[in-house]
Design goal:
single chain; mainly alpha; 2 domains
Length: 376
């Protein structure tokens, strides 16, 4: 039996909710009122239809993933007669506790307003998501997915599937180089220097003799190619056959292209959705897909080793380039938009995703292979 991916995805979504609920994590103050005082407040004076819908929709995936995780993990030994109802109850209880904690903590943030309406809508969204998961379970859709997963992926596929599910969301935040996730060196150096201001440790930091230079077209082509190649290799480490690898590679490159276009449309407007598709980028996408096709018949451990090499080269080349001033200006629209909290999370995903893949692959190759390493 394979381990369900719903549980780690639910954990990731809880992090998203906490981030979205408490951003910007600044200006904490004590109003000397109980954290649960919002439960007895009246209807909020200022509200919009978008806010109401967002509070419901934002918790639907949480309810869905929690209920699905409960049903898929087999934790129904004490609820053998009503496992689906138990899944709904557990999901709603967890969503209720989370929403209550978030609303209570918001009392200490000047930029947030705790609301019993938001709390009720969050619980309703959790219930709706749990009901949808139960309905899909009763209709056999979840079993159909399980059979599909067993045909396509090896049993130890949970970690890679979670990372692959997060990859499109990491691409949503605009990157200086298309598909170039993990460009953190310049920002990291600046943050460390700021933290070390007025301390003797500032002199310990290595000083650059020259400023970072923009990538030449050949280096940009390489970064784009590796950015498309890396998720393909990650999928290859868990896919069962050569044919399924080929389908996955085509879908992955197409999805990465589409998400990058969506990110550009959200950043610069629909008319500029494909403005990033320069000649080096087009050649990089083709080269990345060609590399993926050349690796179709390579055993899973070989793909994991190539993935480590591709990650190291990609991050090394990408972090030798700065983000241009023009690109930094384009992020103002994201930072001032109504989705600022979720955009900030997408930015963190874009920064950390390749490093999470690096850790995951290192852990995978350090364990003995339990299944055949050559695709059937």
């Amino acid at each position: 039996m394979h381990k369900t991916s719903a549980w780690p995805l639910a954990g990731a979504y809880v992090v998203l909710i906490v981030y979205a609920s408490l951003y910007p994590f600044a200006g904490w103050r004590d109003q000397e009122i109980p954290p649960w005082d919002f439960l007895f407040a009246g209807w909020p004076k200022y509200w919009t239809g978008f806010d109401l819908a967002a509070n419901v929709v934002g918790y639907v995936p949480l309810g869905f993933l929690l209920a699905l995780s409960f049903m898929r993990r087999g934790n129904v030994r004490y609820f053998a007669n009503h496992p689906n109802l138990a899944g709904i109850a557990v999901a709603v209880a967890a969503g209720t506790v989370l929403s209550f904690c978030m609303e209570g903590v918001q009392n200490y943030l000047p930029s947030r307003v705790a609301s019993n309406v938001d709390f009720g809508l969050n619980v309703a969204g959790t219930l709706a998501g749990a009901v949808v998961a139960t309905a899909l379970e009763l209709a056999g859709a979840i079993d159909h997915w399980s059979r599909f997963r067993e045909r396509w992926f090896i049993p130890e596929a949970r970690g890679a599937l979670v990372l692959l599910a997060l990859w499109p969301f990491a691409l949503l935040f605009p990157a200086a180089v298309p598909l170039g996730l993990g460009q953190v060196l310049e920002r990291l150096e600046g943050s460390i220097a700021e933290w070390l201001q007025e301390t003797p440790f500032l002199e310990w930091m290595p000083m650059r003799e020259v400023e970072l230079q923009p990538l030449v077209p050949a280096a940009e082509l390489l970064c784009v190619a590796l950015g498309a190649f890396i998720p393909c290799l990650l999928g290859y480490t868990i896919l069962r056959s050569v044919g399924r690898r080929a389908v996955f590679a085509i879908v992955a490159v197409a999805l990465g292209t589409a998400i990058t276009a969506l990110s550009a449309a959200l950043s610069w407007g629909p008319n500029h959705a494909w403005a990033w598709m320069s000649l080096p980028v087009r050649l990089g996408l083709v080269f990345g897909l060609l590399l993926a096709m050349l690796m179709l018949a390579v055993p899973r451990r070989g793909c994991a080793a190539m993935l480590l090499l591709a990650l190291v080269v990609h991050l090394s080349v990408l972090n030798q380039a700065p983000a241009s001033a023009y690109f930094a200006d384009t992020l103002q629209a994201w930072e001032q938009g109504r989705f600022i909290r979720f955009n900030g999370l997408a930015q963190w995903l874009g920064w950390l995703w390749p490093y999470a893949v690096l850790v995951y692959v290192l852990l995978r190759v350090s364990r003995p292979e339990r299944t055949p390493t050559i695709p059937a």
